[in-house]
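Sample intake sheet
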Amino acid sequence: MTAPPRPPADRHRSRKVSNGRPTRPALGESRGRESEPCPGLAARLAATAILSDIVARYHPLEECFSGTAILSRLGGLEPRDIALARSIVTVALRRLGTIRAALAELLEKGLPRQAAHLEWTLIAASAQILFLDVPDHAAVDLAVRMTRLEAKGAPFASLVNGVLRNLIRARERILRESDPLDHDTPAWLAERWRKTYGEAGAHAIASAHREEPTLDLTVLSDPLIWAERLGADVLPTGSLRLRTHMPVTGLAGFAEGRWFVQDAAAALPARLLRAGPGIKVADFCAAPGGKAAQLAASGAEVTAIDRSAERLKKLAANFARLNLRASIAVADIVDFKTAPFDAILVDAPCLATGTIRRHPDIAWIKKPRDIVALTALQTRLLDKAVELVKPGGMIVYCTCSLEPEENEMQIAALLRRNPGVMRVPIESGEVGDLPEVLNENGELRTLPSHLPAAEPRLSGLDGFFAARLLRRG
């Protein structure tokens, strides 16, 4: 959770630390026995291990905090400790570039080879010092205790202490000089976004990623009534944006299935199909089911298809809570055989760079090489949709990616190779009278920097693309 503004750090010059000893005495180091229980230590140990799992081993953040994770780091932790661990991990990922640059400055020669594992301890502690409402002494003391817990780390406890104390002194300057695009965005993504959206556009996207957003809801009926009951804002697109920090399961209407969590941008593609009672619609790659739920709520006869049986179990559970019905098929869509549909939603697997604000791990676990495999799959899914939709039927293709190869270029390629398909432009009135979210071809293109608000967490949208297509009769 983003901390409120902290008082200015003291203005002493930051002293660098070499890979041998800190340049000042290791004041305030923990002197007690490390085996004694220490409040907050377990949460920070978990956060450090999870950061390593995500950045070094490419494990998704949500998977790491799943209660069903096979190798959970959260065993035995109290809910408040899990919440603290998640806050540390999330802000560390959101500001990883800033943290690493600061540590590189303070460690002139980097970490000693035999102590490279301490990077995660330092990153977790730095996240607390720079960005969370955690007392400095607690962040430093617990990092030192963590270092001493392992024999190979113990000799470097003074190093950790010195680095973090010098970080505290340099905090004000570090935060002032940190740039969202140059520091907190992987270089390959920053280069891509500059090319696609221009310098100002890329910078606005990266700036939005620094802010942790609130949650949006899609309500099945009576949005104004539910906005009042939940203390939410009604967005121009029709979604509700929560102001509360309460867990959603405790909010009015959740147990009764009156609404579900869905980013306002993610709620737009399903509406573009113009589905209604009696329309037979397929949702490709349907799990966990938000868009399928919208289609079912419209009265359409929905077939939800996904290759993951486990993810479809979540879809089925969501539909049960919402009192909605759908036919569910576990299948590889490319090989799926069935009678033609009136309309098809292709919710394609993608790089998901449009969701970095909500899922900051995406920036660090995805790689440029992933685009090649994803675009090939997207092409197959689009061709399959054309095959399975009736003549005169509608297709909506969407991704939560910011990358043009997965979106605008994908649609342009389809139209070139298949003259039997035409684009049906989206109109501003279909997307909340927000012309800025439509491109020159009448395709949806939302950005994290869209829909600004005075309070940063109440602004922004996931980065979504959608194109509406018609198979000629």
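Comment: The longest strand covers residues 389-399. The longest helix spans residues 187-209.
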